[in-house]
């Protein structure tokens, strides 16, 4: 039997190379899927370890918090209130004793321009032990501004800032001290204070002398 094929209407197509490319693509996709699975498994293991550590930290934090609450509740009992108040009083007393008025006055003397008077100094010691100072000075405005600039360059006074400015009244201008021009002002200055150790201060002086 003779079979004839009309190639004009049904052209011959070779499918073997296409199937080969499809098989290669399937192999590559399978390899990619396996690699992604291993990467996901590794990330999951790391996440599990990190979560376990976080749970342990949270458990320890909760334990410390419960111990702190128990200690605070115990200290608030009437029998222990006197001890707590005495402890607070002694801590405040030690903080006040640690503040050196002599050192502050000596440090101010180094930065105070001629003609500027310090009318009040109010130190405040925070719970963390930091010292903040509120200064009230009077004098000519240019010299008072110079004082703020000197404080900014000082190692003892930290982040000084002007919190208030008022005109100097006649009674304040005539109240002792050097004479002040009619354009005098009163500055309220807030600043941190850094009580440097004596060795550090001596080293700074020696370096300045050289």
In what order do the strands lie side by side in the largest sheet?
Answer: 1-2-4-3
CATH topology of the largest domain: Alpha-Beta Plaits
Helix content: 55-70%
Q: What overall geometry do the principal axes of the alpha carbons give?
A: elongated
* Tally of DSSP helical segments: 6
Distance between the termini: 119 Å
Q: Provide the structure class.
A: alpha+beta
Strand share of the residues? 15-25%
Indicate the CATH architecture of the largest domain: 2-Layer Sandwich
* H-E string: HHHEEHEHEH
Question: Total domains, how many?
Answer: 2
Average pLDDT metric: 76
- The CATH class of the largest domain turns out to be Alpha Beta
Write up this protein:
With 210 residues, the protein is an alpha+beta fold. The chain folds into two domains: 20-75; 100-198, Alpha-Beta Plaits (2-Layer Sandwich). 57% of the residues lie in helices and 19% in strands. It contains six helices and four strands. A four-stranded antiparallel beta sheet has the order 1-2-4-3, with helices on one face. 10% of the residues are buried. Residues 198-210 have low confidence and may be disordered.
Which helices and strands, and how do they pair?
Blueprint: H1 16-75, H2 78-97, H3 101-111, E1 117-125, E2 131-140, H4 141-153, E3 157-167, H5 170-173, E4 184-193, H6 198-209
Antiparallel strand pairs: 1-2, 2-4, 3-4
